[in-house]
Amino acid sequence: MPVPETSQLNRLEVAFAIDASLRMAQADDHIDFDEMVFLAQTFSKEGLREMGFVGEGGKFTTAFRQACEEAKDRLPADLSAERKLAIADLLHQALQINNAVDPRELVVLFECLASLGLTEQQVNSHLGL
Fold first, then answer.
1. How far is the C-alpha of 76 from the C-alpha of 55, rounded, in Å?
2. What is the C-alpha to C-alpha distance for residues 10 and 7, in angstroms, rounded to an integer?
3. What is the per-residue pLDDT across 49-59, written as a single tens digit (0 to 9) for each?
4. 118 CB contacts (<8 Å, ≥6 apart)?
5. Which has the higher per-residue pLDDT, 31 or 42?
6. Residues 99-114, buried b or exposed e (16+ Cβ, 10 A)?
7. Cβ atoms < 10 Å from Cβ of 89
8. In this structure, are residues 27 and 107 in contact, taking their beta carbons and an 8 Å threshold?
9. Cys-Cys link to 38, which of 58, 97, 99, 110 (CB 3.0-4.6 A)?
10. Under CATH, to which class is 5-127 assigned?
11. pLDDT number for residue 100
């Protein structure tokens, strides 16, 4: 049975959010423990396994990488503004988790949100930046 479209979009949102969070965490050349805890608490390993994103040993799968690529293609057109802003909220939380926002992480945040079709003005206004 095919996956319902809403479930498929949710899968792509999750892949996008994880990928963006990892990119932000790595932007300052190190990953803090608190950043990893945030990801683990936000995205359960069981849920990621069910989506096919995590395999044996907890490694991300090819399906995860494919979903990240598909997300870049589909989410800008297929997601509502409300869902895009919900992703912005989540990424903003991830950015602030260690109480020290590195400017490089902020650049990645804006790049990721721009790839969804959100303007810098929309992001600034929504997040209060």
1. 28
2. 5
3. 999 999 988 89
4. 84, 85, 88
5. 42
6. eebeeebeebbbebbe
7. 11
8. yes
9. 97
10. mainly alpha
11. 78
Unique residue bearing structure tokens 């990488």: 65
- Categorize the per-residue pLDDT at 129 as very low, low, confident or very high, splitting at 50, 70 and 90: confident
Kindly list the domain boundaries of the chain, sorted by start residue. 5-127
Distance CA 67, CA 16 (A): 8
The DSSP 8-state label assigned to residue 33 in this structure reads H
Rounded alpha-carbon distances, angstroms, from residue 2 to 9, 41, 79, 124: 13, 29, 20, 38
**112 and 104 Cβ atoms separated by less than 8 Å:** no
Structure confidence at residue 1 as a pLDDT band (50, 70, 90)? very low
Among 70, 63, 66, residue whose Cα is nearest residue 49? 63
